[in-house]
Q: What sequence folds into this?
């Protein structure tokens, strides 16, 4: 009897241990499955957030690039259509920036603010810039086809003088501008490269010389566009550098 009872005791104990081990293994498996599911869910959420951020960044860059394009094209667009086109592109930038503001981390948001500030600067100067650059282009087309600087033909000479005056206007002293205003008006009208309405708008712009270099641009450097391009490229580097997904 003692031997039989002892054997039964050990059999029961072994069975209990096996049951405990099975239960522990089951618990471990359940916990591992839950952890794996949580990791997968988090990965899906992060992937979705990254995808949304990538889309927001791309939309913002597309909007600001379209704004710059229209600012560049405005001088060749009829004046009556300029304001509406500019407003459309500027509004699109504001809307696209809202998406970045909702999703972007702090470094990206900070750079987006810089881009938005430059876009606002573009919008502010765009219409006056278009007037001046349209006039500059018209005057250049009226130059002497051989040697604009030395040509003595009155019409060719007037176009070149008017062009030179506009290019240097922002660097003249107030008194010099006042003295040369009549000459500018005469040379703009004399060649008839610009119609009366264009001359009127040019003369309105020359009464406000603030930010002249940004409006007039130049052959070699265009300060307004250079500053925009710098902050735009920095935004792209910071924004896409903050993403972990491969494009």
A:
């Amino acid at each position: 009897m003692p031997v039989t009872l002892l054997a039964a005791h050990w059999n029961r104990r072994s069975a209990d241990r096996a049951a405990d081990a099975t239960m522990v293994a089951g618990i471990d498996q359940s916990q591992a499955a839950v952890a794996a599911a949580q990791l997968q869910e988090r990965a899906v959420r992060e992937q979705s957030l990254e995808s949304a951020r990538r889309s927001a960044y791309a939309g913002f860059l597309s909007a600001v690039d379209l704004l710059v394009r229209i600012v560049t094209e405005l001088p060749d667009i009829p004046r009556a259509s300029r304001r509406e086109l500019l407003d459309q592109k500027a509004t699109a930038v504001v809307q696209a920036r809202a998406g970045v503001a909702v999703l972007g981390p702090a470094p990206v948001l900070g750079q987006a603010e810089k881009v938005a500030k430059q876009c606002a600067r573009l919008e502010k100067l765009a219409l006056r810039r278009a007037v001046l650059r349209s006039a500059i282009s018209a005057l250049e087309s009226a130059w002497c086809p051989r040697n604009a600087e030395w040509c003595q033909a009155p019409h060719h000479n007037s176009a070149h003088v008017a062009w030179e005056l506009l290019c240097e206007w922002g660097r003249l002293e107030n008194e010099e501008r006042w003295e040369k205003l009549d000459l500018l008006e005469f040379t703009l009208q004399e060649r008839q490269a610009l119609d009366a309405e264009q001359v009127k708008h040019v003369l309105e712009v020359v009464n406000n010389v603030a930010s002249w270099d940004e409006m007039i641009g130049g052959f070699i450097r265009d300060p307004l566009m250079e500053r925009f391009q710098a902050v735009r490229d920095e935004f792209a580097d910071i924004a896409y550098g903050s993403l972990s997904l491969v494009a």
